[in-house]
Amino acid sequence: MSGNNWTTDIVIEGRPPASVDGENLCSWNRVGPGYFDAVGTRLVRGRPVLESDTEQTRHVVVVNEAFVQRFFPGEDPIGRHFGALIGFEKDMEIVGVAENAKYRQPDRPVVPMFFRPRPQVTHFTNPSTMAFESRSLYATDIILRLAPGVAPPADMIRRIFAEIDPNLPVIRVQTFDFALAGQYSQETLIARLASLFGLTALLLASIGIYGVTSYSVARRSKEIGIRVALGAGRRSVFGIVLRTSYTLVALGLLIGVPLALGLARFIGNMLYGVSWNSPAIVAAAGVVLAVCALIAVLAPARRAAAVDPVATLRGE
């Protein structure tokens, strides 16, 4: 989630090169031994990158499941070869398959990806390609796996790096949650704005219910006084006011829920871990509106229940 991964078109051994630019485009990264354990990515086949994968040994790669589905559907990818240029089709041998994980843009589908051991270099004859290969050797991120709830020991990390090489700068130390949150900054802002608009709408709806209920009680004060004079209890009067208010709530839900579900499908791709048409969320919204309506009508209902029938009859 730091945004540091490479992309390249590949040429698979025994197959013709891609006829269209980007047809065989893959993301890739250099990783060290223990990488998959550190990030919690499970290997589904083969082996991970090992200490024994050095510059002098055969060039190996671990690919993800999306890579297998794209280039070797229904085939065994272990032992197959590919490279980054024509003439280098045998450069890298697949030795493992890792489960899919997203490395950039969490809202996009998983892309084919492969992982190369850090020290293994392909010596291309093309100078620009070789320069690209050399730039990929720089380590930009080191992943530390800590016990749950333990804060990253930034001072200790910087001290250890300084002992290894004073010229190795540690630019920042951050948790994975922090790095992940940075990928959702726009979505987080939109969610907060939507929540603010939703709360504002709920407040306006509650004020509206209060106003309409108060107006209804004022108009029906004589009727309520007569009912009380004829023996209607406070509970009965309270129920009259509630029925008036919840009729408005029911009408609002009948109109609002279909409209909300119809419009929600347009922002469904911006929701993570939540379905846009979840019955639980619709039910929760209805309960929240019902509770707010109850709070809004408490004062008018109390005024209605406290009507003095004698004063009302005299006025009549």
Rg, please? 33 Å
Strand-and-helix sequence, N→C?
EEEHEEHEEEHHHHHHHH
CA-CA gap between termini? 74 Å
- In the predicted model, the low-confidence regions spanning at least 5 consecutive residues are none
Helix content: 40-55%
- Count the beta strands: 8
Instruction: Summarize the main sheet.
Output: 8 strands, mixed
Q: Compute the average pLDDT.
A: 84
> What is the strand content?
5-15%
**What's the tally of helices?**
10
How many structural domains can be distinguished in the coordinates? 3
Structural class: alpha+beta
What's the overall geometry?
Answer: elongated
Can you walk through the features of this model?
- The protein has 316 residues and is of the alpha+beta class.
- The chain is built from ten helices and eight strands.
- Strands 1, 2, 3, 4, 5, 6, 7 and 8 form an eight-stranded mixed β-sheet that branches.
- Helix 6 (185-219) packs across helix 7, helix 6 (185-219) packs parallel to helix 9 (279-305) and helix 7 packs across helix 10.
- The longest helix has 35 residues, at 185-219.
- The termini are far apart.
- The mean pLDDT is 84.
